[in-house]
Design brief:
alpha/beta, binds iron/sulfur cluster, 226 residues, 4-stranded mixed beta sheet, 7 helices, 9 strands, Rossmann fold
Length: 226
């Protein structure tokens, strides 16, 4: 996705997600609006799990659900997550170190709600993999203090076989899995981790700073419900 992404690019992605039977697919202009949409999808008695998502932290959804006593680390009714990348033809691409998040997105919870900023939209699967290996995995490794080849100063991905490989499992959800409902809320702002190399430095720095702040909040919040 280029810096000059248009509303029609976003609409094209929404249309593609719908045609891949993600349901519903909603667009929110702001994080605040997105949070309202997400709360509207969660019944008050539902137990909600989460896949370590800074996007959901950024929306303020996680802390609110903790306050309401709805967050669980056990078997949830609804699973909240973001997506590492969303292709313009409506596929969700995600990478994990352990596979807990990517597997829950496919099977287990009856409903999955994916919240992603427009900065997560990429042109195609090649661009999604470039994004994950070039930006997402190195950032996650750096923040975890892991010395993977991509995370050391000046390093880059060499398809490592490190025991600390942060991108050990990658899934592509091409279409709604048979027994899982996946809803997508696309937000017209930069939410969570992701940018293209040619975006202005200020925009990339802001995304990174917000990501780091929300990782710290996320860790505290998860500790509070353990
Ligand atoms: S394969 Fe290794 S070096 Fe490449 S992005 Fe993943 S963790 Fe980093």
């Amino acid at each position: 996705m280029t810096e000059s992404m248009t509303q029609s690019d976003v609409q094209k992605t929404i249309k593609a997600l719908k045609s891949n039977r993600f349901d519903p697919v909603e667009y929110a202009a702001t994080a605040e609006e997105a949070a309202k949409i997400v709360f509207g999808m969660i019944p008050p008695d539902a137990k909600v799990g989460m896949g370590g998502s800074t996007s959901l932290m950024q929306l303020g959804v996680v802390e609110e659900l903790v306050k309401k006593g709805q967050m669980t680390l056990q078997k949830p009714d609804i699973y909240l997550t973001s997506s590492n990348a969303i292709t313009e033809n409506g596929k969700l691409v995600n990478t994990d170190m352990t596979g807990n998040r990517v597997s829950a997105m496919i099977f287990g919870p009856k409903q999955v709600i994916v919240v992603a900023g427009i900065n997560k939209i990429v042109k195609d699967l090649d661009a999604a993999f470039d994004r994950i290996k070039g930006i997402t995995a190195p950032a996650m490794a750096k923040i975890g203090g892991l010395k993977t080849p991509c995370a050391v100063e000046g390093g880059k991905c060499n398809d490592c076989n490190s025991s600390m490989r942060v991108c050990a499992v990658t899934t592509i959800i091409e279409s709604k899995p048979r027994v899982t409902q996946i809803s997508v809320v696309l937000v017209g702002e930069d939410i969570g981790l992701g940018w293209e190399a040619d975006w202005p430095d200020d925009r990339k720095k802001e995304i990174n700073a917000v990501f780091r702040k929300n990782i710290a909040r996320l860790r505290e919040t998860i500790q509070s419900i353990r």
